[in-house]
Design goal:
The protein has four helices and six strands, in the order βββαβββααα. With about 180 residues, the protein is of the alpha/beta class. Strand 4 and strand 5 form a beta hairpin.
Length: about 180
């Protein structure tokens, strides 16, 4: 999965953890994640990605994709037709932290916003939209299911153990005669 971002920019901190080599500094240079390196490439190798020739200058860990092979290069490396890729175009924006109220306002205007401040300090469950909210305690429904499972297990034991005791008692009665 190719992506384009200047990983040297402080706004990109945390998107890619470099393990060996260096970050791309010139067009045509790229880093690959460990999943890609295990199967195909090492530092100094060249490859064709989206009809562009790239040279691997670093290997590390992609924050979004652990198992899927990824290639990350400077913006513009894969050409104008690759902008956005499979997941669309995104921007890294600096400045003050975006609070939960800011995220709600921007999402209401049609943007899909992720805020590091909101991820690190999420709002109370009651403030989340219904599709994101979830029960954190034990509700009556959960307790009812647990009680049903326990009662079914006890019923099964009684139904299986009762006949076994009866057969054992008959055998013992016959042998004691």
């Amino acid at each position: 999965m190719p992506s384009e971002v200047d990983l040297r920019n402080p706004l990109a901190k945390g998107l890619f953890e470099l393990r060996t080599g260096e970050l791309p500094a010139a067009p045509g240079e790229a880093v690959v994640n460990e999943a890609f390196a295990e199967r195909r490439l090492s530092i100094g190798d060249t490859a064709e990605v989206l009809v562009e020739e790239i040279t691997v200058v670093g290997i590390g860990r992609d924050a979004s994709w652990r198992r899927a092979p990824t290639v990350t290069a400077l913006p513009g490396t894969f050409g104008p037709d690759s902008a956005g890729g499979a997941s669309g175009t995104g921007w890294l924006v600096g400045g003050d932290d975006l609070l939960w109220s800011d995220v709600q306002d921007l999402n209401g205007a049609g943007a899909l916003v992720y805020s590091r401040a909101v991820v690190e300090d999420p709002p109370p469950v009651g403030d989340l939209p219904p599709e994101l909210a979830f029960q954190t305690g034990r509700s009556g429904e959960v307790m009812a299911v647990v009680a049903l499972i326990i009662s079914m297990a006890l019923l099964e034991v009684v139904l299986l153990a009762g006949p076994a005791f009866a057969v054992g008692a008959r055998r013992q009665a016959r042998t004691s005669r």
